[in-house]
Amino acid sequence: MNVEPPVRVEDKLYYNRYLVDIGHPHVKVRAHTTPSPQLLALLKVCPARCYELNDDGQVEITVDGCIECGTCRVIAEPTGDIEWSHPRGGYGVLFKFG
Amino acid sequence: MIEERFDAIVVGAGMAGNAAALTMAKRGMKVLQLERGEYPGSKNVQGAILYADMMEKLVPEFREEAPLERHLIEQRFWMMDDRSHVGMHYRSEDFNEERPNRYTIIRAQFDKWFSSKVREAGATVLCETTVTELVRDERERIVGVRTDRRDGEIHADVVVLAEGVNGLLGTRAGLRARPRPDNVALAVKEMHFLPRETIEARFNLKGDEGVVIEAAGTISRGMTGMGFIYANKECISLGIGCLVADFQRTGQTPYGLLDQFKRHPSVAPLIAGSEVKEYSAHLIPEGGYKSIPQLYGEGWVVVGDAAQLNNAIHREGSNLAMTSGRIAAEAIDLVKSRGEPMSATNLAIYKKMLDDSFVIKDLKKYKDLPPLMHTHSQNFFLTYPQLISKAMQNFVRVDGTPKAEKEKATLKSFAKARSWTGLFGDAYRFARAWR
Ligand SMILES: Cc1cc2nc3c(=O)[nH]c(=O)nc-3n(C[C@H](O)[C@H](O)[C@H](O)COP(=O)(O)OP(=O)(O)OC[C@H]3O[C@@H](n4cnc5c(N)ncnc54)[C@H](O)[C@@H]3O)c2cc1C
Ligand code: SF4
Predict the structure, then answer these.
(1) Which of these three, B285, B318, B334, is where a domain ends?
(2) How far is the CA of A51 from the centre of ligand 2 (A)?
(3) Is A3 at the interface with chain B, CB within 8 A?
């Protein structure tokens, strides 16, 4: 296998414009002790890398960079692992090109 | 609370919602359109190819007014392995016509313009407004919506759900199921800016001529997926998408795939030196005919991506969205002109009209292809591209091997990788699903 340079998602998100709705995250992770396979999948599949493992091995989300694709909802809402809504009107990502 | 009552509320100002709102407003209906983005288009992502025929039916003069990028004179299909691509290119001077058939567009800009036409036609368009819930009456009919802007409810005779692929409202109200991981693809995309002349030189274009490249093969690492490279005036849209279920199964990252695609030796020179100005992601409905949900009910219809109306094989979505939006609006107008209520029985005419259009006919034609591609993704997206690339190299490389031996080697490599029954089985299954 060839070794690939790591992709810096933070740099990609830096191109985008956001209006962050401070204190009103539109996606929430249900409290858990051990993450389900669905939650663990989000660590990799979220294109904005919003999901991360904390030091205790639980999955956490920071929605600031979310590009509102809905992938995490498709995977982890059926199991009740996350709650997913649209941001309030006008908030969230603002695509200039799309 | 808005005391006013509307003939129709349209949720969403994408392709489907704009087509529906425009058509109803033009026919004199009192229309309210609600969009959660700062402006229409600010949440929307597309490749993007615009199909003129369907647009013309809505705004005949769009060629003079709309923000269009390039008219397409060339289509390239690339089958890729890690170091090569086998291409089929179709380019024709016939596409340099007075009323070109396909254009590249930039959705955020295009949707803004499209929405200005909706307003001109007399609809009320409210942006920065997320619809949070559908309102039902005591008989369970949909009679309006609740938003996060104003207290209370807004009422209308009918609600047109043009809310896109995620379709949260419809799911929450139990009108249809949530999209499944094997029915939607996740696509990631970047906008690469370059001087106009550079794009024209690299893609062999002059003036506003354009070209698009659709790519498949080892770039999706055995997952069901495709890459795309579209030439705009001063930027290149580049992206890749794969089935969500495949991402989930393999643990591949979307940005990892994207960066690998950008580094491919066939792709890298096209975008060399570019400035990236945006990174976006969006779902694409991929389930085809078999995943189309209930399209109408008591006081509501659903149009566009929210109804999974997307032809993934031909990469058509916006035109199905526009057409379903227009047809739903025409159906609603028909019911209204008869003075009848917006009941499920009366709105059934929408489905009938849609069944008679290219939208459902095309999706029906390919009804077996999505499942075939999904269950045989390893073969179609990994094994065959590698075999074909090897065969091509064997064909063109001149190294003193007699041609008959070369042919034998190629045939043997195919049989070895897939066995003769496997090969014939795949060909048969593919031909049947295509028919
Ligand atoms: C990467 C990519 C490439 C594509 N390439 C092509 C292509 O080249 N050609 C093509 O024809 N199609 C293409 N498609 C498909 C095409 O983009 C879609 O089929 C089309 O945009 C669907 O239109 P729509 O109006 O149904 O949904 P959308 O365009 O997604 O519009 C939905 C709208 O509803 C709004 N909304 C949603 N929920 C709410 C709510 N609760 N309250 C208020 N507003 C809400 C959203 O903000 C959005 O504006 C592509 C898609 C992707 C992702
Ligand atoms: S919606 Fe998309 S970008 Fe946002 S957290 Fe979920 S997977 Fe990540």
Answers:
(1) B285
(2) 9
(3) no
Best CA proximity match to B179, nearest among B322, B282, B94, B256: B282
What is the Cα–Cα distance from B241 to B190, expressed in whole angstroms? 12
Distance from the alpha carbon of residue A53 to the mean position of ligand 1, in angstroms: 32
Q: For residues B125 and B148, give the distance between their C-alpha atoms in angstroms, rounded to a whole number.
A: 16
B89 domain-assigned: no
Ligand 2 in reach of A76 Cβ (< 6 A): no
Pocket test for ligand 1, best of B23, B284, B327, B354 (most atoms within 8 A of CB): B284
Inside any domain, residue A98: no
Question: Is A2 among the domain residues?
Answer: no
B214, B268: one domain: yes
Q: Is B79 in the pocket of ligand 1 (CB under 6 A)?
A: no
Q: Which residue, B238, B262, B285, sits at the end of a domain?
A: B285
- ipTM of model: 0.95
Residue A4 lies in a domain: no
Angle separating helix axes B318-337 and B358-365, nearest 10 degrees? 130
Give the pLDDT of chain A (98 residues) as one tens digit per residue: 456 677 889 999 999 999 999 999 999 999 999 999 999 999 999 999 999 999 999 999 999 999 999 999 999 999 999 999 999 999 999 999 99
Looking at residue A73, which CATH number applies to its domain?
A: 3.30.70.20
With respect to residue B95, please indicate whether it lies within any of the assigned structural domains.
no
* Interface membership of A15 toward B (CB under 8 Å): yes
The angle that helices B420-434 and B403-418 make with each other, rounded to 10 degrees, is 80
From A46, A61, A62, A74, give the residue whose CB has the most ligand 2 atoms within 8 Å, as the site to mutate: A46
Cα of B423 to ligand 1 centre, how many Å? 37
Domain holding B402, by residue range, is 370-434
pTM for the structure as a whole: 0.95
